[in-house]
Amino acid sequence: MTRLRELHPEAYVSVSATTRPARPGERDGVHYWFVSDTEFDEMIASDGLLEWAEVHGAARYGTPRRPVDDAVAAGRTVILEIDLQGARQVRENCPDAFFVFLAPPSPEELIRRLQGRGTETPQQQARRLETARTEMAARDEFDVVVVNEDVEGTVDKLVELCGL
Q: Fewer CB atoms inside 10 A, N or C side of the chain?
């Protein structure tokens, strides 16, 4: 998504809110909006999230509604970077949205990429892999599956699918 943003600033790529702490190098408002549990609860109560979910049994993530609504009103292409739970909520509320599932080339490559990031403990990696298995089993719920072989090829395919 970072590369897509660089190449096509005319598209709006969502920035999720999360209750997890920032990792080294992550910036508030760029990578995520880092919020407290109380702030997240307030966003839910005020209908400030388009979708939200607890992910990996550890933290909550959600898409702030207002920037999405503003981008749609401005006629921009909107791309939400969300998980399966969020996609199901969006499908319910926006049935004419187009859903793309980004899949790893193989389970082995997914493990290699996850371990290579070095940002999670072995326990966190195990939770993420379990989530990935659940999500992969639901890939048929999406309109199209794009296999993420490499960044440039994946961005090219997303650009084509979004008509950018």
A: C
